[in-house]
Specification:
Shape: globular
Strand content: 5-15%
Helix content: 40-55%
Family: Belongs to the short-chain dehydrogenases/reductases (SDR) family.
Pfam families: adh_short
Protein name: Retinol dehydrogenase-related protein
Keywords: NADP, Oxidoreductase
Number of strands: 8
CATH superfamily: NAD(P)-binding Rossmann-like Domain
GO molecular function, one term: oxidoreductase activity
Number of domains: 1
Length: about 375
């Protein structure tokens, strides 16, 4: 009798899970508040997926974006040739901003520029490729010098480029753990070199693309070290019986994303509450991109499985345009940023402010800043 009840309970749980997955991947999850209650259980879930939002309403909309007049303003976006970075670049160009595309690949960078110019809503504003590899401090320095030579102002800086690598103990050409070097240190150098232009802007906006991983993919006692040796030697704690080779790349990615939020807070404190530079960070949510759809799938996986997976991603995740909207809010909604003094904050999709408890540590913020400053000092 007991075994029969266990089987019935197992069948019931399986049915509930199947129903939840079915509802989640259904278009209904976007139209009705099926899962909205979950965000009250865990605040960090807000905006992770369209289903995980308090309401279906956006606090900053495409309609508001389309009323923005950005003529005469200059924007630099890293990681601009695809995904969130491309959507940000295209949207800013549509509103008349001069856009500089920071990309590592020449072919992809020039193609992205051509795609923006051929957009039916293209404003005619300048779109310029700028070759930049943020994992390489010498190349960041070179790109920044080119930008300074060709531009006498900068109003918006989107620190968007980033990587996730599953190669353990991989170091950049500068001897820095690669994920941290790319997501944090390279952007720190770029900001420091362009800071004079930002300070001269009437109202400059700096936006860092972070992630929920900075809260959930880090140990509870996470700290950011102040030396590159400690950074490189860090061995995250094991989780359950998972292999270190499996879990460590996730923790290192999470550490870098936490550092981005902490960095924005450290910089905000240095600039002061009356600064004309507004620095914030945002998580775009789980976004349907060519990477998540995995178009170039392994040959041993049937096409119908990959097609189902792509459909699932499209239904469950945000589109790239939706994922970019919160960062565009932080870059474009100047009146609201000034009125509400939006500085050193962290946002999830639908422009909802969220707290990353780890990033609230002033010690951690200062460690991120001091570590980054020490690593780029000789390039300044």
């Amino acid at each position: 009798m007991a075994a029969s009840n266990i089987h019935k309970l197992g069948a019931l749980i399986a049915a509930i899970v199947a129903l939840a997955i079915g509802l989640l991947q259904s278009p209904l999850s976007r139209q009705y508040p099926i899962f909205h209650w979950l965000v009250h259980l865990d605040h960090s879930l807000i905006g992770m997926l369209p289903a995980f939002t308090p309401t279906n309403s956006w606090r900053y909309t495409n309609e508001q974006l389309q009323t923005a007049d950005l003529r005469g303003q200059v924007a630099l976006i890293t990681g601009a040739n695809s995904g969130i970075g491309f959507e940000i670049s295209k949207a800013l160009s549509r509103q008349g901003a001069t856009v500089v595309l920071g990309c590592r690949s020449p072919q992809r960078c020039f193609k992205a520029a051509d795609d923006i110019r051929s957009d039916e809503l293209y404003s005619g504003a300048s779109v310029t490729p700028l070759l930049m590899d943020v994992s390489n401090l010498t190349k960041v320095q070179q790109a920044a010098k080119i930008f300074l030579r060709n531009n006498d102002k900068l109003d918006m800086l989107f620190l968007n480029a980033g990587i996730f690598t599953d190669e353990d103990n991989l170091l950049s050409v500068d001897g820095i753990e690669t994920t941290f070097a790319t997501n944090v240190v390279g952007h720190h150098l770029l900001y420091r070199m362009l800071e004079p232009l930002l300070l001269n802007s009437t109202m400059a906006r700096v936006v860092s693309t972070s992630s929920l991983a900075g809260l959930v993919w880090v140990p509870k006692d996470i700290q950011i070290p102040t030396t590159v040796k400690e950074l490189n030697d860090w061995k995250p704690p094991l989780v359950f019986n998972w292999s270190p080779d499996f879990i460590q790349p996730f923790y290192k990615y999470g550490r870098s994303k936490l550092a981005q939020v902490a960095w924005s807070k450290a910089l905000t404190r240095r600039l002061g509450e009356n600064s004309s530079v507004y620095v914030n960070a945002a998580h775009p949510g789980a976004v349907a991109t060519p990477l998540t759809k995995n178009k170039n799938h392994p040959p041993n996986i049937p096409d119908f499985v990959q097609n189902w997976r792509a459909t699932l991603v499209n239904n469950v995740c945000w589109s790239s345009e939706e994922g970019a909207l919160t960062e565009l809010y932080l870059g474009v909604a100047m009146d609201e940023l000034k009125e509400k003094q939006v500085r050193g904050r962290y946002f999830h999709p639908q422009s909802i402010e969220v707290t990353n408890s780890h990033a609230e540590s002033v010690e951690l913020q200062e460690n991120v800043w001091q570590l980054s400053e020490g690593l780029v000092e000789k390039f300044l």
